[in-house]
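One chain is below:
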Amino acid sequence: MIVRISGKIAEKKPQSIILENNGFSYEVFMPVITLSRIDENTSVDGQVKLITYHYHQVEPSRSIPVLIGFLNEIEKEFFEEFITVSGIGPKAALRALNMPISEIARAIDEADIDFLRSLPGIGPQRAREIIAKLQGKIGRFGLIRDAQAKAPKAGQIGLIDEATLVLTQLQYKKHEAKDMINEALKKAPDIKDVEELLNTVYKQRAKR
């Protein structure tokens, strides 16, 4: 399975790029919102590094390997959460994610059906299914500063320390992260995992 790919951009298409790497050319599909930021993440010599989601699109007479590219692990994690919704496969998610992930996460958390319906291929029923499946589970993605989001480092280093690490990787200053975490723990002292803590942080900020 291909989990990362790097190379020189040889061609740009409406929803994919062609990467050249050691004599091979790879087509990498990308959500529109990610593709719109590819230039700012490309080196002066045209090189780019991508995190990839690799799957096989099965058709009656063939199985086609497909690469979907992301600029960081956070984008990929959100994509993987999004495709857990019944009826939304990788191809549908690729098309739907044409708005900043933080805005989509906010819409899910606030049950904003009108916003979700504005995403390509998402109708009223699918919007309700997205909310039912993901509401309360993806708050941390609402904290992304989309233009600068970076992947958080893995590792269990304690609840507060791990949450602080995630927030600093999301471009919040360390003292901001500590203040948000402390406020969340004061209101919900029984929080036991990082995801719950980050969701609580997000909900606090959303109320401001």
Q: What stands out?
A: The radius of gyration is 18 Å. Residues 174-187 form the longest helix (14 residues).
